[in-house]
Amino acid sequence: MLFAFSLRSAVASLSPLIGHIQDDFSVPAAIAGLIGTVPPVCYAIFGFATPALERRFGLEALATAAMAVVTIGLVARSLAPDAGLLLAGTALMFAAVGTGNILLPPLVRRYFPDRIGVLTTIFTTTMTVATLLPPLVAVPVADAADWRLSLGMWAVFAVVATVPWIGMTLRRRSAERADPTEVLPGVFRRMWRLPLAWAITIGFAVSSTIAYTSFAWLPSILVDISGVTPAQAGVLLSLFAGMGVPASIAVPLLVTRRGATRILFGVAAATGLSGIAGFLLAPAAAPWLWTALLGLAPLLFPMMLVLVGLRSRTHEGAVALSGFVQSVGYGIAAVFPLGVGLLHDATAGWTVPLLVMGGVIACSIPVGVVASRTVTIEEEWSRRHGAW
Fold first, then answer.
1. Fewer CB near the terminus (10 Å): N or C of the chain?
2. Which sequence spans correspond to the domains of the chain?
3. What is the DSSP letter of 113?
4. Where in the cell does this protein reside (predicted)?
């Protein structure tokens, strides 16, 4: 929980403070844009790198290092004297967050193999709360003190999160000396050849694409076509984000206890497409309803994370699948916020961008059929290519 909280509190604490930061030094539009692009890019890059790092150092040691680097990045960007170093500190922090994202499902798989649903519910809910909390307190703290304190105070939580992982690292190394385990090389490369891995990856990409594109453009869409004020658009964006709270609580348990994977894929597709249809056909009629419906499409996020644990049988399989799903998924998602903006400029409207978002959501329908099959990646590999 501490680990999950620090991964997300680090993400959401900067954007509300850009105005305060610009009172001290200029933050060019290009730098601000790069800061917004850094998260999915770092998640993709370090998603590819994490399985190799994990084989070299181990899950617990890498978790400890990730929290330590998050702490350093948070402190560094709170002390940044200019926009360039603000960007550098942010990139350093998100590199560690990208690694941490990959580690959470395998850690749950290792320590709670019979409680994957419950623990996934706990950490995804914690991540959702940690995403909502910093924007609520960032500006009040900056107004009462300054933006540096508001930005840097989250490092305290990262420090606290690091402490138990130091103990877990020492404990794990003692256990491995007593009972060494073999980690198979090249497992990550096998993911490219498994339809199940691709199905979970596309589901993750759909969720991330809708989330990042909506955070980037939903307020503009609401103001331009639904006739709401900028302040109301901000509230509706909070509604979009808030729809993730009940989803993060319910979805992992429904998947693990009720086997509701296929039904939930259908719910995500139906609600997301209904929200898009509302914005296209009657944008001003009920913008809060269209926003809430669209906000349910990213329920695929906690479902894909729990499927990483359920669709892998071995430790190395869980690490490789988590790395593949998140690196490729975030890599795909990183393209769409920019692409949607370019489409809006090229067409001078939101119809084509909304149709593209609807097409992305529709991709979850066929992949849901594959991801719903109760087979592990190890079993699928054995059936297709021989012994794991």
1. N
2. 1-181, 187-388
3. T
4. Cell membrane
Q: What is the pLDDT of residues 140-196, one digit of tens each?
A: 898 899 999 999 999 999 999 999 999 999 998 887 766 555 555 688 999 999 999
Q: Which fold has domain 187-388?
A: Growth Hormone; Chain: A; (1.20.1250)
Say whether 187-388 and 1-181 share the same fold.
yes
- Token pair belonging to 293: 């419906």
Q: Tokens 């926003």 label which residue?
A: 291
Residues whose CB falls within 8 Å of the CB of residue 272, separated by 6 or more in sequence, listed in order: 210, 293, 294, 296, 297, 358, 361, 364
Q: How far is CA 111 from the centre of its chain?
A: 22
- In this prediction, residue 255 has a pLDDT band, given cuts at 50, 70 and 90, of very high
How far is the C-alpha of 218 from the C-alpha of 196, rounded, in Å?
32
> What pLDDT is attached to residue 56?
87
